[in-house]
Amino acid sequence: MRAVLVTGGAGFIGSGLVHHLIAHTDAVVTVLDKLTGAGNRDSLTGVPDERLRFVRGDVCDVAVVDELVAGQDVVVHCAAESHNDAALRDPRPFVDTNIVGTAVVLEACRRHDVRLHHVSTDEVFGDLALDDPTRFTEASPYRPSSPYAASKASADHLVRAWVRSFGLRATLSSCSNTYGPRQHVEKLIPRQVTNILDGRRPRLYGSGAHVRDWIHVEDHSAAVLRIIEAGRIGETYLVGADGEHSNREVLAMVLQLMGQSADAFDHVRDRPGHDVRYAIDATRLRHELGWRPQHTDLEAGLSETITWYREHEAWWRPHKATVEQEYEREGR
Ligand code: NAD
Ligand code: DAU
């Protein structure tokens, strides 16, 4: 694998993957990213110039995608509109980028016979009840409940159809909630960390009993690389690190790590249609491909993440006020 195209490579997962590929392979990486509010060119700081080509562009642009896909060994498709609250404000860009953009990437990979890995999410399976003893597996039915999740589910169906109908060499991964450095301040953990740094009280949606299954971005990246190297064509691999916690628990950890009382937060209006619980059974990935998460202590991972935000204010500061103004308008 000498040449890899990462779409959305200036985003949270994409940039984490680029840093991982640079550290663990010899690949030269091309990044195609539109630099929407979520993407940040500075997330690629530290990647040597001779290993990186950065192209600002849209995955819906057929000509740009076609030119970049030609000559690659692998395409990793991370570009997406990724935030549930943003999809509730305006779902249209989610349809364009997540569905149409994926179709454009698929067609380019088909034309040039290039191997594709499609980065998806556990949200395609909908949610689980808090007391449900089961977790999501590769056999779980698709039941997306939000506009974002429905757009990602649509994209997954397109990928599978291209594998079956055209023999495209593609794999998929559905990962759980990922945390770590370089995540946009619109998302739960960076939002609350930067609120506390700014002397604002964190905001918890509804009761805060909702459960997410947390995994560190380095473990997510390692799983994607492992699937590219050894995954079976046409297969989906669920990625998760047995990290189930309620939002209340996660917030309490963040508050205490930052020297505050565990209850120093405000309950705010709940997210409409809020998924109750996600939980991943990653047995296939562990047994078939031998992947194991390295960051199994959430508190330690959160502590390092908090340190990263403390030390990189210049990275997040330009976006903070706009994000908070939008939340303010919605009573969140
Ligand atoms: P992000 O919003 O941080 O990054 C998305 C990137 O895509 C940004 O850099 C953005 O500029 C770029 N982008 C958006 N529209 C584009 C377009 N039309 N053309 C080119 N680039 C465009 O999101 P993320 O959290 O890094 O998520 C990346 C992928 O990982 C998504 O497919 C998401 O569904 C998936 N995922 C994320 C998580 C998570 O917890 N963050 C978990 C599982 C799966
Ligand atoms: O499960 C994977 C998904 O995880 C990815 O596909 C998405 O791209 C990613 O954004 C994430 O989705 P969530 O909606 O779970 O993430 P978010 O960080 O927005 O919210 C996490 C939980 O925290 C959710 O239950 C809502 C809640 N929340 C969020 C914010 C921003 C709060 O209580 N307060 C907040 O301020």
Number of strands: 13
- Biggest sheet: strands side by side, in what order? 3-2-1-4-5-6-11
Query: How much of the polypeptide forms β-strand, as a percent range?
Result: 15-25%
Q: Which regions have little confidence, pLDDT < 50, spanning 5+ residues?
A: none
Bound small molecules, by name, code or SMILES, are: nicotinamide-adenine-dinucleotide, 2'deoxy-thymidine-5'-diphospho-alpha-D-glucose
CATH architecture of the domain at 3-179 and 214-239, by name, is 3-Layer(aba) Sandwich
Helix content: 40-55%
The CATH topology of the domain at 3-179 and 214-239 comes to: Rossmann fold
Any idea what the radius of gyration is? 19 Å
Annotated CATH homologous superfamily of the domain at 3-179 and 214-239 = NAD(P)-binding Rossmann-like Domain
SSE pattern: EHEEHEHHEHEEHEEEHEEHEHHH
Q: Mean pLDDT score, rounded?
A: 98
Number of helices: 11
Plain-language structure description:
It is a single chain. The protein has helices at 12-24, 62-69, 84-89, 92-112, 147-166, 188-197, 217-230, 247-257, 283-289, 298-311, 313-329; strands at residues 3-7, 28-33, 52-56, 74-77, 115-121, 170-175, 178-179, 203-205, 211-213, 215-216, 236-239, 244-246, 266-268. With 332 residues, the chain is α/β, with parallel strands linked by helices. The protein has a domain at 3-179 and 214-239: NAD(P)-binding Rossmann-like Domain (Rossmann fold, 3-Layer(aba) Sandwich). It has a 7-stranded parallel beta sheet, sandwiched between helices. α1 crosses α7, α2 (62-69) packs across α4 (92-112) and α4 packs parallel to α5 (147-166). It is globular. The N and C termini lie far apart (45 Å). Residues 7-8, 10-14, 32-36, 38-39, 58-60, 78-82, 97, 101, 119, 121, 152, 175, 177-178, 184 line the site of nicotinamide-adenine-dinucleotide. Residues 82-84, 121-123, 176-177, 187-188, 191, 203-205, 210, 212, 247, 271, 278 line the site of 2'deoxy-thymidine-5'-diphospho-alpha-D-glucose.
